[in-house]
Design goal:
Elements: E1 7-8, E2 31-35, H1 53-56, H2 62-75, E3 79-81, H3 105-109, E4 117-123, H4 130-143, E5 148-153, H5 158-163, H6 172-191, E6 196-199, E7 204-208, E8 221-225, H7 229-238, E9 241-243, H8 249-266, E10 271-280, H9 284-296, H10 300-309, H11 336-342, E11 350-353, H12 355-367, E12 372-377, H13 380-398
Parallel strand pairs: 1-6, 2-3, 2-12, 3-4, 4-5, 5-8, 8-9, 9-10, 10-11, 10-12
Antiparallel strand pairs: 6-7
Bound molecules: flavin mononucleotide (FMN).
């Protein structure tokens, strides 16, 4: 207890929504996010990207990514969502081995856009104090006139934690308890008009204030990317968008039901988002041909690099990667299933096929309860134009987009 004359706030755990939750409606039945634009080769670990690196791998270079983001907004995408990655998987493609920062880049995307939400990702357990993020966020929210949002990820990779000097193991569930306190303190910082004290188990703050506060009322949008029961519980208790994955439509249906039950229990409104990987061609046959080429050229070393980094984590719903597999192509313990689901699309639903097929796949996801779909394109320049010319008109006819 510090006797500094400031009030100590009582609430240190969620659910906590002073002033309520932000309104997330954009008028679109299915919201769209332009995903993973900031990372080399996005969600495609294939040596095929080396045939045209500027287009298929290094679209993150600002000269290109800034144009892609503007194009995504023009087409009607509701958000830009970066992928939060500090260290790549290596291999011949240097997969994900370059990334524009996923927190600061929202500030750069704000003045080049007018309507779309600009999202940052922060790994909260790597050492930020909530005051850092509350201040950065309030600033980007000002610059963007209330369009900033934060994707909170707990931070799970041992090699990334090590890069931040953290060699101690982090208990999975405790990371979410920390995250909850982190979020509650941020919400206080965005809400309180006077300096205050906060005394939690993981975070303390004495006499802090964030002025100016965020532009958006009551506060910026918060999202969590995760999938475990503890992660989902955390998300429904504390954030506004639950960004998750499932291995099948059935799996999504179950997850949506679980999230809806929890949101009734906690009396909170959340939107359900997922990510996807798109490969769109004029016909299904052409898309299948290109997919086969990407598959033939899979960068196994990069996939293996990722696999080892994910050891012990059921990160993307592909199963615990410490469960040893079958020495795929001479890589010790590498499960075939991991290669097949991870290399192209990082285990997310594949939007692969003709515009009609892709639109049907999107409709199927929407029908099982997905309200926001974040898309990483195998070829973003081409993919955004295909969305504009071919896929969005079908989605409009389906009543999924206005
Ligand atoms: C859809 C989705 C997107 C994710 N995006 C990121 C990301 O951009 N950066 C990151 O470090 N982790 C990301 N993660 C990993 C999660 O933040 C989390 O650490 C991981 O899923 C383990 O938590 P869990 O056991 O609750 O699922 C993502 C997970 C999911 C399911």
């Amino acid at each position: 207890m510090v006797n500094n004359g400031f009030r100590t706030v009582e609430t240190t755990r969620g659910p906590f929504d002073p002033g309520g939750q932000p309104d997330l409606e954009t008028g679109q039945p299915l919201q769209l996010g332009f995903f993973g634009w900031n990372v080399r080769a996005g969600m495609m670990a294939s040596k095929a990207v080396l045939t045209d690196e500027a287009r298929l791998a290094d679209y993150w270079v600002w000269e290109r990514s800034s144009k892609l983001i503007k194009l995504a907004e023009e087409i009607g995408f509701d958000y830009q969502v970066p992928f939060g990655r500090w260290i790549g998987g290596g291999g011949a493609t240097n997969f994900n081995g370059a990334a524009l920062d996923f927190l600061a880049s929202a500030a750069a995307t704000a003045p080049i856009t007018e309507k779309m939400g600009v999202i940052s990702t922060a790994h909260i357990t790597y050492g930020f104090h909530p005051l850092h993020i509350a201040k950065f966020g309030a600033t980007i929210d000002h610059i963007s006139n209330g369009r900033w949002g934060l994707n909170i990820v707990s931070g799970y990779q041992a090699q990334e934690r090590a890069a931040f000097g953290r060699l101690d193991p982090l208990d999975h569930d405790e990371a979410y308890d920390m995250a909850e306190e982190f979020v509650v303190l941020m919400k206080h910082l965005w809400h309180e008009k006077e300096r205050f004290n906060f005394e939690g188990d993981y975070y303390q703050s004495y006499g802090a204030i964030v002025a100016p506060g965020p532009s958006r009322s009551p506060r910026p949008v918060l999202m969590n990317a995760g999938g475990s029961p503890k992660g989902i519980d955390f998300a429904v208790r504390n954030v506004d968008v639950v960004f998750t994955l499932a291995p099948s439509l059935e799996g999504y249906r179950d997850k949506v039901a679980q999230i809806r039950d929890l949101s009734t229990k906690y009396n909170r409104k959340v939107k359900i988002a997922t990510m996807s990987w798109a490969l769109i061609e004029a016909t299904d046959e052409l898309a299948a041909e290109r997919l086969a080429w990407y598959q033939d050229e899979v960068d196994l070393e990069a996939v293996y690099g990722y696999y080892q980094a994910l050891a012990g984590i059921d990160t993307f719903g592909a199963g615990d990667s410490s469960a040893k597999g079958d020495d795929y192509e001479g890589y010790p313990g590498l499960p075939r299933e991991f290669v097949e689901t991870f290399a192209l699309g990082m285990t997310s639903p594949r939007l692969c096929g003709s515009p009609e097929t892709v639109a049907e796949k999107i409709r199927a996801l929407h029908e099982v309860g997905i309200e926001s779909l974040f898309i990483n394109f195998s070829d973003p320049q081409k993919g955004l134009h295909q969305m504009q010319d071919d896929v969005l008109p079908i989605l409009r006819k389906m009543g999924i987009r206005n």
